[in-house]
Amino acid sequence: MQSRKNYAALALLTLAFAACSGGQDANAPVSRDDASNAADEKIADTTMVETAVMEVEGEAPAASAAAVAFAAECDQRIDAADELFNALEASEGPHTVDTTLESYNDLGIALYNGYAKSSLYANAHPDESVREAGRECEQRFDELNTRLSLSRPLFSAISTIDVSAEDEATRFFYEKQLRDFRRAGVDKDEETRARISAIREELLVIGQQFSKNIAEDVRSIELDSVDDLEGLPQDFIDAHPPNEEGKIVITTNYPDYFPFSRYAKNDAARKALTTQYMSRGYPANEPVLEQMIEKRHELANLLGYPNWAEYVTEDKMVASAENAADFIEKVADLARPRAKLDENVLVARLRQDYPNVDSVGIWQRNFVDNLVREEQFEVDSKLIRQYFAYDRVRDGIFELISDLFDVQITPWQTEVWDDSVESYELKDGDRLIGRFYLDMHPRDGKFKHAAAFPIVAGITGKQTPVAALMCNFPGGDGTEGLMEHSQVNTFLHEFGHLIHFLFAGDHRWVGNSGIAAEWDFAEAPSQMLEEWIYDKQTLQSFGLNDKGEPIPDELIDKMNAARKFGLGMGNRQQMFYAAISLNYYNRDPASFELLPLMKQLQAEYSPYDYLADTHFYTSFGHLDGYSAIYYTYAWSKVIALDMFSRFAEDGIRNTATAREYRDKVLAVGGARPAAVSVKDFLGRPYNFEAFAESLAVDGEGAGPLE
Ligand SMILES: [Zn+2]
């Protein structure tokens, strides 16, 4: 996600940062602190990504030798890119594919590699001053990219190239470049272009302020007695002794908030903490968000669009703000019957303790969801963890990918930025497909979520793709690193981005290479791969305890039953978030106020009532990064399940189907519209059927009480 945000800024060259990330992305939280997969924590994680950005603040460390060296490398890379850019601007033509477009592509590659390496170091290098140097370098590439995107001479040169005799991939790349130039505003007059640049810069600062206000607004409640901690694990209780005044302080930080919202039996205390949690960023962020929305509206108008949502959906699969609205409506409708069943189960359980309730409050959802999972689905996460030691999980995922796609993963001897980082090569027989790093365990100052970071774009005949997975899983510290099932799921999800990037690393044009398809498709391959992590054969191949016994059938059955529970309410809540995201951006900012519109959307979509005195939108970090398109995650899911339907039919380990999928979807990268690739693989256009089936209430039902 963090990378995606940058990608959005890098309009011109479609750098295709493979982003992904934690939170809303993975079905599971990715930090070690909160290992549960209650549907709503997705949202929480998303703001965590934003807070990671904020670590930028603070005193600059003294530069180490490594930082000085990296800064010098950055200078060199920027100079080299500048030189290519200046030469292109000065070139008089004639402009052809083999001359100008190739040079332009080289410039794109220089930008891609330079930006990617700085981003990697900014997020992963163990030396703080190198991380700082990485962030500075990222900004310089950002600035250079903005200059490119508004360069008239460059645009004129590119637009006179004749591509009519070229192959489909070249023509597609070319059309995307022209479109992105126009979307950047290159064809506007000088005054307008200056205003566009100014707004972009302002938006960057506004976005940083928005994140900062969320990250810094740590709130708390005070409890009078240890009795108020009833239900919480002993290690939590031990870590929260009464202070000098005899009060126990519980904060809105994740390591406090998530266990407390899940386990605390004191309903009033849970409600008080949730109220604080959902007030983070208020009131400071209200004017900041208003400004963000206004500036984006102005920017969209300057670029010739009626509002920001129209602008930002135009180059996505969804294609228009109206289609996005229809999509949200459709998913919300599909989820409604199952949401009702979910709610019945939760209310019935709540009534055992609180006889008068007739609905689930937002401060009760994690608590009661957990109770139902423990009591009725008997999913014992402590038991499950015994089967997922980190090393075995990693080897199991390697084996799954190797078998499915008929490839080999072997160690790669190279330098790494930290001793704990592993490096590998992905090969197809003798052919090297790409290389990757695994940086999988927490470290001070490291990126705190889970994501795939591109490092080198794969360009045919020029460079082999390289990427890194950055996660924060247990292990790597001498322990066996027992993982939650949700973390295994996250591992495979991120690995999905990795292989997508590497398989798509054999293209002539940088804008077609890697995860370069439309943003709302980007999560589909990873979400599809998650299906394997509920497959018995796959799980039992590497899910072994320390006696070497495979995870029992019965436990896997329970995990699958529990997986469906909560999907109805979870999807409706997600559509509520998607609706806020879209509706704040699809109209004139002067025509609405934040709180009343949010309340109206909540009543329409959310399974939970508005909690008095809260202002959720001031801590909804994705209103910056995703802006209007929070729907994308659900959109990708629809396509993921549709693509999986072929595996469901042909067999989940069918290598011929996997080969077809690799060739027709993954390897294609961004060389054609994603819808065309999916149709090629499925033999028909994608549809909603498999997704609707996943929410159907007939047959399996929503819960054991039904
Ligand atoms: Zn992802």
Question: How would you sum up this structure, described in words?
Answer:
The protein is mainly α and 706 residues long. Helix content is 56%, strand content 6%. It contains 29 helices and seven strands. It has helices at residues 2-9, 22-25, 41-54, 65-90, 97-124, 128-149, 152-159, 168-184, 190-216, 234-238, 254-263, 267-277, 285-302, 308-313, 321-353, 365-376, 381-385, 390-405, 485-503, 524-529, 536-542, 553-564, 567-583, 594-605, 622-625, 632-650, 655-666, 674-682, 689-695, and strands spanning 220-223, 248-251, 408-411, 422-428, 431-439, 451-456, 466-470. It has a five-stranded mixed beta sheet with strand order 3-4-5-7-6. Strand 4 and strand 5 (431-439) form a beta hairpin. It is globular and about 80 Å long. The model is unreliable at 1-58 and 700-706 (pLDDT under 50). Zinc ion (ZN) is lined by residues 20, 25, 493, 497, 523, 526.
Give unreliable regions as ranges. Answer: 1-58, 700-706
Q: Could you report the average pLDDT, rounded to the nearest whole number?
A: 90
Whole-number count of domains: 4
Bound molecules: zinc ion
Give the CA-CA distance, first to last residue: 38 Å
- Give me the number of helical elements: 29
CATH architectural category of the largest domain: Orthogonal Bundle
Looking at the structure, the CATH topology of the largest domain is Neurolysin, domain 3
Counting DSSP E segments of at least 2 residues, the number of strands comes to 7
Largest sheet: 5 strands, mixed
Helix-strand category? mainly alpha
- Widest sheet: strand ordering: 3-4-5-7-6
Helix content: 55-70%
What is the CATH class of the largest domain?
Answer: Mainly Alpha
